[in-house]
Design goal:
With 163 residues, this protein is mostly beta strands. 5% of the residues lie in helices and 50% in strands.
């Protein structure tokens, strides 16, 4: 069991998912560490690993001096998301129409768009809250089989394992 954003995640560890990307929070000092992983050719590929950008074949990832990580599609240069890790981790997701959706994860709650989730239990779902590229927000979604096998193998972002 993992406790994130005021909710319990049992048999799942992903509080947020966006456009096939899975956002993983883990304890860190002084602030939580965020990693973002997606499936590519049947294997996990990181865009962000413990708050740091990771070179990968799918996206362009950069980090500003204040620590904001921005991710764009490598083929189209379209903005995908940006992350400001901290005690209140904030994210902004880009939609197909060019609009942006904000999300915040604090120790008490997860807020995405107009939805606030707190004191919930997510048991067995792969991802807690899902944002799609058109701006829709839902609760509970499966994780692709290749990523699920990787999660169940016991490897984690803190192991530094990057495929």
């Amino acid at each position: 069991m993992v406790r994130l954003g005021g909710s319990e995640f049992i048999n799942c560890s992903v509080p947020l998912a966006f456009a096939g990307r899975y956002f993983i929070l883990e304890p860190g000092a002084p602030d939580p560490l965020l990693s973002v992983v997606l499936e590519y050719q049947g294997k996990p590929v990181f865009e962000v690993l413990k708050n740091e950008p990771v070179e990968n074949p799918l996206s362009k990832v950069s980090k500003t001096p204040p620590g904001i990580v921005t991710v764009a599609d490598r083929m189209t240069d379209r903005f995908l998301y940006k992350v400001r890790p901290g005690s209140e981790t904030s994210l902004v997701f880009g939609t197909i129409r060019g609009e942006e959706i904000s999300a915040t994860i604090t120790d008490r709650q997860i807020r995405v768009g107009g939805i606030t989730v707190e004191n919930c239990v997510f048991n067995g779902v792969g991802a807690g809250i899902v944002v799609d590229e058109s701006g829709g927000v839902g609760i509970g979604a499966p994780i692709p089989p290749a990523l699920l096998r990787w999660f169940k193998s016991g490897q984690s972002p803190s192991s530094g394992h990057v495929v």
